[in-house]
Amino acid sequence: MIKLFIVDDHQMMLDGIQAYFKEDTEIEIVGNSISYEDAVRKIINGKINFDILLTDLNLKDKTGLDLIRKLKEANIKSKYMVLTMYFERNIIAQLKKLNVKGFLHKDAPQLKLRNAVIEVSKGGIVFPENSPTENVNYDLESKYTTAKDNFGVRYKLSKRELEIALLITEGNSTDQIATTLELSPATVSTHRKNLQNKTKTSTPLELYKLLIDQK
Fold first, then answer.
1. How many domains does the chain have?
2. Domain that holds residue 207
3. How many CA atoms lie within 13 A of 161 on its CB side?
4. Does the pLDDT of residue 142 top 80, yes or no?
5. CATH number for the domain including 209?
6. 79, β-bridge pairs
7. Which residues make Cβ contacts (< 8 Å) with residue 84, sequence separation at least 6?
8. Could you tell me if residue 131 is inside a domain?
9. Does 61 share its domain with 30?
């Protein structure tokens, strides 16, 4: 029996997945969470055992990327799958860097989700066609050069704010950005608030969609 833990910030999505697998003879849902914090509490502190984590990419408090990183840091032995409404190459590349084994659109038929879970449990990888096959090395400076005449100018961002915006869209946390740019977390948090005010966004995915629309 494949043990599955699911995370999604929409209760209807959680209920739908659980209902579908309720009578399944190969897949058992052993737990669920509606947020990053709840998932961390149940998995790390509650020590729930599972084979595969299936998480939404865009959670209310943080992202699915943040959750996967946190669990990896806690040495949670699991395979990871992600559901999302977005199919952008940059996001897919970031997931592959984290060794995520499955990536599906939220509108995928339930049977396709079931087959993907089984395939991943057997050691397979399930990603959309035409996704990048190699990990991507990102050149922050070249990305800045590409975007500075459109995104940066349109939203009146400083070079530092644009650097941080790019790192945010690549799934980096505040602490990770602080380490990369040799800043304090408090300074990065201030820049993030300024970015949200200037771009009228509240999540990394909203920021990312603005950014790619300007390129």
1. 2
2. 140-214
3. 21
4. no
5. 1.10.10.10
6. 52
7. 56, 57, 58, 64, 91, 103, 104, 105, 106
8. no
9. yes
